[in-house]
Specification:
Helix content is about 80%, strand content about 0%. By secondary structure, the protein is mainly alpha-helical. The longest helix is centred in the last third of the chain and has 37 residues, at about 150-190.
Length: about 250
């Protein structure tokens, strides 16, 4: 049974509005580059808000939060060491001043720093697979400083500088890849635009798509190809980010 014309038009309009909102909500190259130059964080877009409401944080966002927390940790640790505090006390104070995605993961680090345990091993254990590069480097600095004796402040400052350079490079790469991302999202919405153009020319493509097995098969195949194209483009972008990571 063919759906009424008014219902079909309404459904197409809703789909078009959803595609437009999705494309509009994504970060563009200008905003990303401006954020990388000014050192400010990009405002959350609508997709970030929807992900937060769904309580399903993206792995990339969690990794970025860990990297930012690592930079803050190294900065705070260097300041505490420069103030004359002992390494264990300085690390404990520095950890308490940052807000990582998982505060419980750094609790063993604080315990090892206060009790004189193996701080390097605790840092390595707390470092996540993605975004834990800073903690891994800090663990190496701690191990070298404990083996040689002294020099921890200079090592931490170098690690902090390298992490900031890596973050700036990562933001530059994200700015360059935001254009292909936006283009892929726009191409994903072209089928809906095609339906609207066909309806404007007096055709009824929705009736064909839902009116028989052949039309429904074309609809399924088209949606599958569209989804595969979006997935493949996203995979290429993620691969490019991994290859250009410092």
């Amino acid at each position: 049974m063919t759906p009424p014309g008014g219902l079909v038009t309404g459904l197409v309009a809703v789909l078009a509005a959803a595609i437009a909102a999705w494309v509009w909500a994504g970060p563009d190259a200008g905003r990303t580059r401006l954020a990388s130059l000014t050192g400010t964080r990009r405002p959350r877009d609508m997709r970030g808000l929807w992900a937060a409401l769904a309580r399903r944080p993206r792995p990339g966002a969690t990794a970025a939060a860990w990297r930012a927390a690592s930079v803050e940790l190294c900065q705070s640790l260097a300041a505490e060491l420069s103030a004359g505090r002992t390494p264990g006390d300085a690390l404990a104070r520095a950890v308490s001043s940052v807000s990582p995605p998982d505060a419980a993961a750094l609790a063993p680090v604080v315990a090892a720093a206060r009790d004189g345990g193996d701080v390097a091993a605790a840092l390595l254990h707390a470092a996540p697979v993605r975004g834990g590069e800073g903690l891994v480097r800090l663990a190496a600095c701690w191990r070298v400083s404990m083996a040689v004796g002294g020099g921890l402040t200079a090592l931490v400052e170098r690690v902090c500088a390298s992490l900031r350079e890596a973050q700036a490079h990562r933001e530059e790469v994200a700015a360059q890849l935001s254009g292909p991302r936006a283009t892929a999202r726009m191409l994903a919405g072209l089928p809906v635009l095609g339906l609207l153009m066909a309806a404007g020319l007096g055709m009824n493509p929705v009736a064909f798509l839902f009116g028989g097995p052949a039309g429904f098969a074309c609809l399924v195949v088209g949606l599958a190809l569209d989804a595969a194209g979006v997935w493949w483009t996203r995979r290429l972008v993620v691969r490019a980010e991994d290859l250009t990571a410092p």
